[in-house]
Amino acid sequence: MNRQLPFAYRIDRDGDTFTLVATRTRDEQGRSVDLAPILDRRISIPLGTRRFFEHVNLLTHALEEQTGFHIGCCTGVADNQPGPPFEFRADNEPARSALLRLVRSRPARNHLVRSEGAYHPVPSEPGGYHWLMRCEPGESWCFINLSPIPDRR
After folding, report:
1. Are residues 80 and 137 in the same domain?
2. 101 and 27 within one domain
3. What pLDDT is stored for residue 4 in this prediction?
4. What is the domain extent for residue 48?
């Protein structure tokens, strides 16, 4: 079926995570053309202890330098649960795998725990996110929307 459509995709697997990656699209004249996925580009982030959002900013900045696109990511999630700083690096690896490692380091959601007469947010175990990357055709920006997967309880 992929051959009959103007778009093509591949499925990447990393452990229990599957990613649908666009590999063909249409150009301005409507012709089917190869697409170089932005997150396939190799990036490096120096080792450092930073907050999640700081690591993400370094990742998106590395992609911006290579592509000339403005790339935003994760603002609502990063601001919602700041979390403690942690060590991270990427050594000439695909941006997708670096982003996946970052996402896996995030608490899925905060739980409220009562202590000393008040409720306090306590992070849950890492994981439980999905993302969607959208690049605006004809524009020079992309955005990665990162969202927690709703609790199934």
Report:
1. yes
2. no
3. 57
4. 40-107+125-153
Phi then psi for residue 125, to 5 deg, are: -65, 150
Please enumerate in sequence order all residues whose Cβ is within 8 A of that of 58, keeping only pairs 6 or more positions apart, or say none: 45, 46, 50
Residues 86 and 135 in one domain: yes
Alpha-carbon torsion 119, 127, 106, 64, what sign? Answer: negative
Specify the 3-state DSSP secondary structure of 3.
helix
- Per residue in 40-67, pLDDT (tens digit) is 999 999 999 998 889 999 999 999 999 9
Residues 6+ apart with CB under 8 A from 121: 81, 110, 111, 112, 113
Alpha helices in 15-143 (DSSP H): 52-67, 75-80, 95-104
Tally the domains of the chain. 2
- Rounded to a whole number of angstroms, the CA Rg of the chain reads 18
The three-state secondary structure class of 81 is: coil
User: Do 72 and 98 reside in the same domain of the chain?
Assistant: yes
End-to-end alpha carbon distance in the chain = 36
Question: How many alpha carbons fall within 13 Å on the CB side of residue 94?
Answer: 10
